[in-house]
Amino acid sequence: MNVAVVTPHHDPKRSMFLDRLRFYMSRQTRKPDQWIIVDEPTNIKPDLTYRVRIGIERAIQNGADVILIMEDDDWYDPQYIEIMVDGWKRIGKPPLFGIGYTIYCYIFGGRFWNSQHKGRASLMSTLITKEAALKFKYPHDTEVWLDMAMWKIAGGKTIEPNKAYSIGIKHGIGMCGGVGHNKGFSRYTSDPNHNELRKHIKEDLAWYLKLRQ
């Protein structure tokens, strides 16, 4: 089975996050068979859907059976790909698969939000099969909420593991899409000492805290 990872990379101002993702990829217990970073210049703004669409198309052309979306600025546990692929198999290989909750941490000022999704996963922790991707009718290339459009596919299933295998890092650096990059987002809980982040990513916390300097 050919497992592909697609990463949309929007903005050179976020190159340090992409470098960090390369580190996270290097320590994965299950390496992808292909990793496609879509980083070429485009006049489309915002361009998330465009980059994901292009990346998935390239992955399928290169023989992908399943595609994971891993965003360029988020944190991933070393077992992330392994857990996603094994969980997808265990739950019956649905067309769409992902983690049914997301921990979002805003690293400037210290805030977090534990989001329970209803029947879906966030884009950063979504797996789609080749068959589902070929049938999927993409929204406009400038659509920001691509994950919601994808999860309207019938047959998607999620799991809720008892530890965090991915965390949405919010920061407001460069071109950003989600509302969580706004420090005033109403659903955030104040966490000035980053205790929520410390609980999950002790070994990587120092790297994120350096960004505040």
Structural topology:
Layout lengths: L2 E6 L6 H12 L7 E5 L9 H14 L4 E4 L5 E2 L3 H11 L5 E4 L1 E6 L4 E6 L9 E4 H6 L10 H5 L6 E3 L6 E5 L18 E2 L4 H6 L4 H6 L3
Parallel strand pairs: 1-2, 1-3, 5-9, 6-10
Antiparallel strand pairs: 3-8, 4-10, 5-8, 6-7, 7-11
Features:
single chain; 213 residues; alpha/beta; six-stranded mixed β-sheet; five-stranded mixed β-sheet
Summarize the entry for a quick read.
The protein is an alpha/beta fold. 28% of the residues lie in helices and 22% in strands.
Question: Can you describe this structure?
Answer:
The chain has 213 residues and is an alpha/beta fold. The chain is built from seven helices and eleven strands. The chain has a six-stranded mixed beta sheet with strand order 2-1-3-8-5-9, with helices on both faces. A five-stranded mixed beta sheet has the order 4-10-6-7-11. The longest helix has 14 residues. The termini are far apart. The relative contact order is 0.19.
How many separate helices?
Answer: 7
- Envelope shape: globular
Low-confidence stretches: none
Structural class: alpha/beta
How would you characterize the largest beta sheet? Answer: 6 strands, mixed
Give the N-terminus to C-terminus distance in angstroms.
43 Å
Mean pLDDT across residues: 91
Count every beta strand, where a strand is a DSSP E run of 2 or more residues: 11
Based on the structure, what is the oligomeric state of the protein chains?
Answer: single chain
Main sheet: strand order: 2-1-3-8-5-9
Order of helices and strands: EHEHEEHEEEEHHEEEHH
CA gyration radius, whole angstroms: 16 Å
Strand % is: 15-25%
Helix content: 25-40%
